[in-house]
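User: I'm putting together a teaching handout on how sequence relates to shape, and I'd like one worked example. Could you take Adenylate cyclase from Alienimonas chondri, show the sequence you're using, and then write out its predicted structure as tokens right after it?

Assistant: Happy to. First the sequence, then the structure tokens directly below it.
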Amino acid sequence: MTGRTEHGSAPPGVAGNSAPDADGGHAGDRHADDGWTIAVDGGGSVVVRPGQSLSVGRSALCELRVSNDPRLSRVHFRATMPESSGDGAETLTIHDRTDGQNPIFCNGERVEGSRRLHEPTRLAAGRTRFRVTPPTADADEETVFPGPASASFLGTLTEGTLTFDARSLAAVPVTRPDRRFEAVARLPEVLRTPDDLQRLPALCGLLLAGVQDATTVAVVSRCGEGEYRVKEWAGRNELAGPPTPPDELVAASLNANEAILTPDGGGWAFVVPIADPDDGRPGRREPVDRGLLVQGRNRVPSAERAADVRFVTLVAEILAAADRSGRLERQAATLRPFLPPRVLEALGESPDPAALAPAECIASVLFCDLRGFSRTSEQILDERGSAGLSALLERVSAALSVMTHRIRESGGVTGDFLGDAALAFWGWPEADPLAPVRAARAAVRIAADFARKRPAGDPLAGFRVGVGVATGPAVAGRIGTEDQAKITVFGPTANFASRLEGLCGPLRVPVVCDAATADAVAAAGDPSLRVRPLGTVRPAKMRRAERVSELLPAASDSPLSDADLARYAEAVAAFTAGDWPRAAEVLQSHPAADLAQDFLRVRLAEHHRTAPPDWDGVIRVDEK
């Protein structure tokens, strides 16, 4: 049966239920002078009288029901008051019914099993706070916290304390707007200060100007379990020295991640936590390590101090946002050499390791290897000995820089460096239908960079490249062990890209791609790219035959015209079909400078321009 509450109607989700007493009446029908009152801060309450045992939790069967707190159990705890002893020493026993999975805190201390109460007490369970008062306690409305409860811990604080959440602060009227606006106007200048040694003193001075009645302002931080220190401070009387932080108040505010105002000796004090902006999860209230402490000596009603709390909270939120922005920028600067903008954008403002987890995808993989590296390295080491290693590393680094620049320029991810080779991929962390085109574009540009004539002293002089591009299923992301990992790509598509790079030598071309990449590039119609077939080959140590093609730049950037490519495609088609005389005839008018034709001419000559009887159109390539 639902009855009335002792302190007005309950908010949504909080109901006080009355239990039958010994006379057949209900607990809510009597005055509370003979029982303990359990009140939800800002909500309903019940009275536990001598000989009664009442329950608190989310269940509708509980005498005090808090249905809007998902962290409470159906029956979270029971409160039992023994029969009156007649000596005025009434007690209340709290029994934890959760087996310690979501504990209860009594004045900030965890309840183990049960706890006997003798005096006014504060309880915290889940996100809800309770005030428990004995029959002889006087009502003090200022101890009721405004707004919904959302913390799971509070320290032991004096009476008259007010705790503020976002909703209650939003309802506080702004006082002294001119003074506060003037202080806030100085905040951007303070935030632009490069380090805390200069920023924190300026911040304290700003707060002192904005809170007219404050005697001291300090930045406090956690330095150990239950220990706090003043990092910086400012006061009206500098000769008085730095304030001593009230540990109980600071602990309660930082642990609850809420602003708390309390009487302090002959004056007042409040602490506002400096917390990262909410990450979007509802009800998130994690403890923080820093806060702003403001103290004053004049006796002013707590309601007037609320406007000061609102002002300081605004400053703390802006400070936290600025700190977070700076931290994210530093993280981005650290990640930028490893990840392209496309991946950084996908990770968003709050990099989550889960976003880098390995995932299956359709990837276009590029494998690029230096040609001439072995000969160049031998020459340098012969001339300079071990002293030439630095020069060799400088040249290789310059070559890898060309590769990674083109890869990043095309939106790819550099997955690994293998000595003088680079592995890159497209299609992760988000699916990209243009991944084959982007990979092809990077491959052609890399080949063009290394094809340019360079003077003898140039670090890239004497280097050429072979590039293989394959498109297909892969696993990409953070791959490795718990101790060491890298962002890379794994699977047969990556292996095949390496095999295709190995065909660049026998086929006498700088860039070789598989059929999936060639078809995607041809369908895209990118004017900067062209594709020509090279034949159907079976690379060394592979069972599968693959139709391979060369990727080339536009005719304006190549010695081969579109007509040249069409003629070569006709020769390849005739060769594959077994019409080798026709293939030889077409190649007669092909430009001699195109080295790719040597691959076909050698095979035509070996068999006197006649296809073998068992010819199936597949060329076996056992060399590299």
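A couple of points you could highlight for students: Confidence is low (pLDDT under 50) at residues 1-12, 17-31, 139-158, 279-284. Residues 326 and 513 are 43 Å apart (CA to CA).
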